[in-house]
Amino acid sequence: MIVSVADHVATVTLDRPDRLNALTFDEYAALVRWFREPPAGVRAIVVTGSGRAFCSGGDVEDIIGQLFARDMAGLLAFTRMTVDLVRAMRGNRVPIVAAINGVAAGAGAIIAMASDLRIASPRGRVAFLFNKVGLCGADMGAAHLLPRLVGLGRATELLLLGDTVDAATAERIGLFNRVVSEESLLAEAHAVAARIAAGPTFATGMTKEALGRELDVSLDTALEMEAQAQAICMAHPDFRAAYDAWVQKRPPTYA
After folding, report:
1. Residue 164, beta-bridge partner list
2. In this structure, are residues 55 and 20 in contact, taking their beta carbons and an 8 Å threshold?
3. What is 2-197's CATH topology?
4. 179, CA 20 to 30 Å: which among 68, 161, 191, 233?
């Protein structure tokens, strides 16, 4: 992968275009390490792929073929490493924008889904292929995350059948936030990331954390969690900075 940082926005580019950006063992591990602790000062992340694909999943030769030589302990070590990537993406408080420039299949579909926002070009398409190759469709958190994006009925269809979803359909069912021209994809993704990066970083992190934590709690618990989160934000300097800017009729400057 290639990482660049400019104006508090990090761009993570999966960079094996000749293999449709398929993941290797080493690349999985590198992504986990990077997303667990993005560099200081990074306030938003764009993840994309080089060439004509976003990510085609695990490399057939470098990963899939080698799994047959592993015992159950070895297989479980690998699958736990793959889910660690989702934990790292969802667990850090920096919002992630996926710029889906082509096929996102298997683990690539999960990386897109584990991002906070998904912007695609018309060439962007998603396929949850696991069931088609004899694996459980509920891989890397798919059965948890996907129903929350598209609903249980649609998620069941996608995970059981493994059909490829084109960009227009993905936008219509809520899997993609928006579809833009191929030429403007990265500019649009960076513009969204820049808006996030220019906002109140502390409150943004609290918002991402709340969206994740409140998926599995009762309304009463969610209300108390949000009351506490809001009180904490009210004590943060950014809240006063926003108020002072409003009074003085100028843009706010956040910490």
Report:
1. 127
2. yes
3. 2-enoyl-CoA Hydratase; Chain A, domain 1 (3.90.226)
4. 161
